[in-house]
Design the sequence.
């Protein structure tokens, strides 16, 4: 479905995150066992796989697409849906077909 009403996102297909965590039990088990992660979730965003990890001091989102580079709109959408924050709040690292966003938690006084 094309979003014709919003000129900012013209031509983009409507995005939807689907929780596919149960399809990756080994990934989740390894992350929880060998890192300080308290939560690991895996999502599908069409052809893009999204891995969301939450630890006591930060949240990390990894987007991967085997066929093309990750688009800015995908990063924006995923961060808003999973963290309620914007890309400007994150430390972004991009590589071909992959993007990583790290969001530091505020230090409690």
Sequence:
């Amino acid at each position: 479905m094309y979003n014709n009403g919003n000129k900012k996102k013209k031509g983009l297909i409507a995005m939807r995150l689907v929780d596919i965590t149960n399809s990756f039990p080994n990934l989740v088990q390894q992350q929880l066992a060998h890192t300080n992660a308290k939560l690991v979730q895996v999502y599908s965003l069409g052809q893009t796989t999204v891995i969301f990890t939450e630890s006591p001091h930060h949240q990390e989102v990894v987007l991967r697409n085997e066929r093309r580079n990750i688009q800015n709109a995908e990063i924006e959408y995923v961060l808003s849906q999973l963290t309620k924050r914007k890309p400007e709040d994150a430390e972004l690292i991009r590589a071909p077909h992959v993007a990583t966003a790290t969001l530091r938690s505020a230090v409690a006084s």
